Amino acid sequence: MPNFAFINNKLVNFKSAKIHIEDRGLQFADSVYEVIAVLDNNLIDLDFHLKRLKYSLRELEIKFTINKKNLTNIFLNLIKKNKTRNGIIYLQITRGIQFREHKYQKDLTPTLIVYTRNKSFNLPGKNYTGVNTITFQDLRWKRRDIKTVNLLANIIAANMAKKKNAYEAILIQNGKVTEGTSSNIWIIKRNNLITHPANSDILKGVTRTSLLKIIKKTKLKLIEKQFTHNQLINADEVFLTSSGSFITPILKIDNKKINNGKIGNITLKLAEMYTEACING
Ligand SMILES: Cc1ncc(COP(=O)(O)O)c(C=O)c1O
């Protein structure tokens, strides 16, 4: 457990950190969030996270002004105090406190919550592992481009994965793959790398955005297009991306092995290139 959290403008003891019972984040999931990886004390892809946070806030009309310098100071302070050399920063901004009513008032003061958690990452090297996954119906709402804490459909799917000893559930909508419960999904067929386009059906992952830049340096052909369940299970290689999982190979989907259950060469190469970019900027 971390020792400290940051609530609004105060560093507080993690165990006794509290928010109000009429905070709209609690009552309505009227709230946005980000999860930022910390690798060797470095904040990974910070600018992309702040850009997406700004987008989520704007789409929901939550009036919180992002000050990069202030937030960075909070992050670095918590990393130090909680000794989070490797792990994640969790940041959540709720619309604020108001008597319970669906309609919100314009002048609310948003609640800012930040804390860190230690975590080791699945990076290329001798302990690099691939994971099992399941497929599950995508039951979510229609604005998945906004990173809100409205995550019950993701939770149902993720817990089905857990019951089946799988790491992630890949979500399927009308026979097509959207994304994972907390990751973006990629397939490789010959030299084509295919992933769902960044529209309101998926969250535009920060890791996804970073990887797109890296792919430009390779001979792979990037195709941002929907793909079917059939294409998924017949792909040469499949992997997922997220700030918590970096680039993680998928070796099994339901009962079907991918690439004979082995980590594919292209996935490995991309993971190496991405990790290198994270370490060396
Ligand atoms: C639904 C969903 N898609 C994709 C991602 C991956 O996004 P990122 O790479 O920014 O972590 C996440 C991360 O939590 C997610 O919740």
Characterization of the model:
Strands 7, 8, 9, 10, 11, 12, 13, 14, 15 and 16 form a 10-stranded mixed beta sheet that branches. A 6-stranded antiparallel beta sheet has the order 2-1-6-5-3-4. The chain has 2 domains: 4-118, 2-Layer Sandwich (D-amino Acid Aminotransferase, Chain A, domain 1); 131-280, D-amino Acid Aminotransferase, Chain A, domain 2. It contains 7 helices and 16 strands. It has helices at residues 24-28, 46-59, 68-81, 152-163, 206-215, 229-233, 265-280; strands at 4-7, 10-13, 31-39, 42-43, 87-94, 111-118, 131-137, 168-173, 176-180, 184-189, 192-195, 221-224, 227-228, 237-242, 246-253, 256-257. It has 281 residues and is α+β, with helices and mostly antiparallel strands.
Question: Keyphrases for this structure?
Answer:
D-amino Acid Aminotransferase, Chain A, domain 2; 7 helices; 281 residues; binds pyridoxal-5'-phosphate; D-amino Acid Aminotransferase, Chain A, domain 1; six-stranded antiparallel beta sheet; alpha+beta; 16 strands; 2 domains; ten-stranded mixed beta sheet
